[in-house]
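PROTOCOL LOG
Step 1. Enter all chains and additional molecules of the complex.
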Amino acid sequence: MSTLSDNVLHGDPGIEAHPPHREVHAAGVAATQTIFEKGRAGRRAFTCPELDVPAAEGLLPGAFRRAEPARLPEVSEPELVRHYVNLSKRNFDLDSGFYPLGSCTMKHNPRLHERVAALPGHARLHPLQTPKRAQGALELMHRLEHALGEIAGLPHVSLQPSAGSHGELLGVLLTRAYHEDRGETRTKVLAPDTSHGTNPATVTMAGYELVKVGTNPDGGVDLDDLRAKAAPDVACLMLTNPNTLGIFDPNIEEISRIVHDAGATLYYDGANLNAVMGHSRPGDMGFDIVHFNLHKSFTQPHGGGGPGAGPIAVSERIAPYLPHPVVVRREDGSFDLDQDRPKSIGRLRGFQGNYGVFVRSYAYICSLGAEGLKDASTTAVLNANYLLARLRSLVGEHLPLAFGERCMHEFVLSGAPMKKDLGIRTLDLAKRLLDHGFHPPTVYFPLLVDEALLIEPTETETKETLDAFAEAIAAIVREAAQDPSVARDAPYTTPVRRLDEAAAAKRPVIRQPL
Amino acid sequence: MSRYTTTTASDLAEMLEAIGVASLEQLFDEQVPAGVRLGRELDLPPGLPEQDVYAHLRDLAARNTSAEDEISFLGAGMYDHYVPAVIDMLTSRSEFLTPYTPYQPEISQGGLQVMFEYQTAISELTALPVSNASVYEGPSAVASAGYLAKLANGKGRFVVSAGLHPHSRETLATYAHGFGTEIAEVPLRDGITDPEAWAAAIDADTSAVFFAQPNFYGAVEDAAALAAAAKDSPAVVVAQVDPLTLGILKPPGECGVDVAVGEGQSLGNRLDFGGPSFGFFAATEAYLRRMPGRIAGETTDVEGRRGFVLTLQTREQHIRREKATSNICTAQALNALAGVVYLSWLGRRGLVELGELLLQRTHYAREALAALDGVAKLHDQPVVREFALKLDEDLDVARVVDRCQDAGVHPGLALDGNVLLVALTEQRSRADIDRLAEVLAAAVAEQRAGSPVAA
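Step 2. Run joint prediction.
Step 3. Record the structure below.
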């Protein structure tokens, strides 16, 4: 059976290398058997320690006892290892190939970080250990908070949120606390129509009404629309800058003035921070609250959908409401957790946050330093503009840039002309890219661009990789001009081909029948 | 160029030419207004070679007292269970460690099938038919269940047992203040949720009821009775359950619980000073389309082969935006992988055996410690992996804990009211328990004597 890794390792961009085929893999059936369909009664991977205390009877009333054991798998360790190793081979991953998924910042994950996070002093530290016996961890958190505050240009940091959307929720709840403390009742939150889906979802969760702000022809916030909507009942504007079109809003100072004149807070969605580290700081742009995605700009591996971490940095006026506990440095130089925060909004989760993620991101900041962080953003912007230039020269006619001339760390192409002229959609292009050994860009987002492709190459890719990717897209476009059905039926070389998502949603099967 | 970037001088020249700019600065000058440019270097230390970063992080680690360094009976939500080697090996594989959320199912079958298997395992554990593919962690999972109830029935008040973990109660309160649901707390009596106060608190305006099994003080609640009390109300019955006890405790789905959530750390995840771990979220069929987060589903490809996809995505923020059932995007996929590998490693019989072992050792430890001078049980309810002790009024529990730690044993969490919360795992043997009894007795005696006593 040809595995994904083979395709990636031998990722020949030439289409001839991957002719359409309809061979069913011999190992196909076993490959999709779940762990629950494997094994035999009596097999095991776990040896339970002997009972070393006197056996007592009747410790648990029968009414509270489980009658039938949970039908968990019964497998030996070799079966367990083989099952999951084989499953892993049915995944594409960043270590194997280019992953230009826009707004996700799929940059290299340094392996040092896994090693230091696994040190027992970090990995086996209990979250309720007495602070005086967790001084290393508290110092690490304190140092990370300081670094993030400096990068954001906002001095007060909470590391607690578990991911970007959790940081957003915290940010909007802090906004609520701030207004309530001033005796003001505000009911609306503004967000541009280009925003990440997490922004509007957060607004509703935090008990506000969403009001959408339009986008001007240059891809920035429509200032007239913003002025019209920035009313006294508006609590906050949530903005990403550069936005999801990869455009740094040239009117950011004016936007900040309008929002602050209305008495509202300005919230920075840090998903795109990788464009501006060391160049421009959200705090200096006028933002009151910023969230970071440590799994984006700060190299926490994405893990197939987490874990991440979503710390926030805030201005002086928001600081009193930050969640507790807060890491503080006492006068004797020791570190402590401060629970005594009378205006705090409370907690967003258990304990102190995703410390294992903090270890990795802190190690990254130590490795790069001020200069390296700035270089990372510079190179991310360089790579994006270079890839954009390559694609414009190769396929600009079919896949034009949606807005503007330049971009920051990512850019959006429209597949509308390609669809009209060549008869293949952005989805088909994305699926055909799989046969070339590349992860496709983000597709059909942002919503205001027809047939959108959102491309973020990141700073850790070589020029050779960017060239190969551009060539692959050009090859697919040329191929479509000859025979659009090839892309329409793609992919061919993946472990499975296009899947019936409609059927999955119509009659959901979400667990193994046992 | 740092060690993670690759642009050589000749690359740069070619790239700038292709772009049509003279310099890197021009890219920023053209796009970022001068008024918001930093105009100086970040005030951070210079970068370090890999070996120096390693040494620095190792030095910080060495200043922590971990469960490697002392005999620890700390629990209260996270537990020092053994993490099998297969988990380290599988979670460090690039193919699981480095992909994003599986938006392209054709090249993500491994991760999607893991989610499907994880959902199956959580459904089996909880005896509830619907599970998502993970949420952040325990307390925020409780709060997410609150939001589910808010969207499902819009009633005005949550009824919360004082036996729910304090972090869960606080997190629920933080979220609920945002979406506008009031909270009424029901006290404990004899170590468990006061059944009369509980029943009296539930009415036609109750949106959801929340309790923990076992509760924060280790007591096994009468879950079926707590759920039954809400039967004639609109309330969603939410239980925070400890997954490691579900080998021996009656599962929430057989107790009338609608939504079971909890902290998954016990299942193959490290302590990591509190995270990352994962939260699980399981429910009855009625809440399938109100679930937060990712759900993997089975389907077929164009050639009829079995495959897996993210499904029911019209619940989610990237499709439904302000009408989504949750704002969650990145969750805890890698930690959930550790969870399902752990449950497969334990297996059908192993989970029961582990539960029985902890039941016996917990009983042994509770009796041994409660027999000490100055120490008593906080309550007499059945306990399965954790229990609470009360020290006599003249003692200071925080000082007792500190003295025990000086002797190399962390006796558990000091709580208000001179209470000590003691947790067991399979890594704490009878010899460890006996040592704890010895050290605790000495710490108590020392405090009473006002001078050190050898332990």
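Step 4. Note key features.
The longest strand of chain A covers residues 234-239.
The CA atoms of residues 130 and 156 of chain A lie 24 Å apart.
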